[in-house]
């Protein structure tokens, strides 16, 4: 009987893995297609960076509500509904392009809608995972999911999106809509009992949100790493929000070449997801977090100083590798420490800070690029990330993380 249950749980994890993989493929296609479409409509760095602002703003505005919904509703149904909504939004955009309507406003609305659905889908997926695998296996499961995410979202998806966009813009968005549809169909097969939230009883939404945020804010370690993640995301987004202009104007890439640039960067993310567990065993959590902040700063400085797209891809790969290892550390800690019925709300409070900083970073990148040139965001982010890494090194030590993690699990 125990063996049958274990097999069922593994099968459920594989279904979650496959469903999120399909969604990540769609995300990867749009990762190159959406900025390329924006760049064909306008060459203003601030307006192009505004695309990232529109996509990530929901993480600041809606994420607490999404977390509360994840803890009180069937998580399987939320995963299906979120991906179905994303499929519909991208399909509508594809139809406007098919009728020869190229509007920056329509693109902004579409990516904003995608962002709202993403707050639900991503929060629900992370909250479901501890119900599908033993807690001792979370690092490995997260590594597999994140490696797949990098492979499809950054390695395979962007060149596919760039290639399809070069053929016809509508083809890239239609393919993205199809991939989201497949994700919804696959995730519909998750077990209902396994995928549902385990909150003891329904409670008013505001009270539920307040309870999750209070739990999050009362834990100094999780609060600290959330603030750190927010700072890193802000500085990283300042760079990536104008990367399409750097690639096409300074590195001389066409649409397909820009997709390949993103794909080259993703190699590091795939490697980071696959090697994270082994590296954490050898290095410890503290050094891993230090390097995950320092190495992106070094990579951005290098990109600011060169004009070779191959070197740029290698440096972006280094940034992606470091960021992936850091993500595995922080997400695994949160999943292992937070009670199941609070996972959605605490996770959303964390992500409101960590991902809510992204719109600010997009705005910062656009302003810096417009005022001081396309390389300015790279110089500013590089300096700030190096300083942040050394400032946090004595604070986020392996000993402190282990002690705090142990005490959280005991409670």
Structure keywords:
mainly alpha; 411 residues; disordered N terminus; Growth Hormone, Chain: A
Q: How many structural domains are formed by the residues? A: 1
What is the CATH homology-level superfamily? MFS general substrate transporter like domains
What structural class do the secondary elements suggest?
mainly alpha
User: Can you tell me the CATH topology?
Assistant: Growth Hormone, Chain: A
Q: Can you give the mean pLDDT?
A: 84
Total of helices? 18
How many beta-strand elements?
0
Q: What is Rg?
A: 20 Å
The oligomerization state is single chain
CATH first level: which class? Mainly Alpha
Second CATH tier, the architecture? Up-down Bundle
What is the string of SSEs from the N terminus onward?
A: HHHHHHHHHHHHHHHHHH
Instruction: Profile the largest sheet.
Output: none
End-to-end C-alpha gap: 30 Å
Q: Which geometry do the CA atoms define?
A: globular
Beta-strand share of residues: under 5%
Helix content: over 70%
Low-confidence runs: 1-9, 194-200
